[in-house]
Design a protein that fits this description.
By secondary structure, this protein is an all-alpha fold. Helix content is 81%, strand content 0%. The protein has a single domain, classed as 23S rRNA-intervening sequence (de novo design (two linked rop proteins)), CATH 1.20.1440.
């Protein structure tokens, strides 16, 4: 098994690939502001899962990176909420992504609890 087998990784990666092109349809001035922040936070969700998995031998380190991933997940939701209000023409798509990121956040929480309770140090 590797990180590619984790549901949280698969979901986060798919969401990243949904976010990226959507962020590029924003007005030009927003591409380097909220658009960039959105792309980076969505990427951070995935990247921290991968980096944490690489440190899975050390339970506390693994949990730390999973928490970073969850924090980036929350940050991504926040960016989407702002964009939803600023650009109502994309509101439906942003709302769908918010729902998906909320589901991912719950899965990340469950996985963090699993690692805390069952992972061997």
């Amino acid at each position: 098994m590797n990180y590619r087998d984790l549901d949280i990784y698969k979901i986060a990666m798919e969401l990243f690939f949904d976010i990226h092109p959507l962020s590029l349809v924003l007005p030009r001035y927003e591409l380097y502001e909220l658009g960039s922040q959105l792309r980076r936070s969505a990427d951070s969700v995935v990247t921290n899962i991968v980096e944490g998995y690489g440190r899975r031998r050390y339970k506390a380190e693994y949990i730390r990176f999973l928490v970073f991933s969850h924090s980036s997940n929350d940050e991504t939701i926040n960016h989407l909420e702002k964009l939803q209000r600023l650009y109502p023409e994309h509101a439906v798509r942003f709302q769908d992504l918010i729902k998906q990121y909320n589901i991912l956040g719950a899965k990340l929480n469950s996985y963090i609890r699993y690692v805390e309770q069952n992972w061997k140090s």
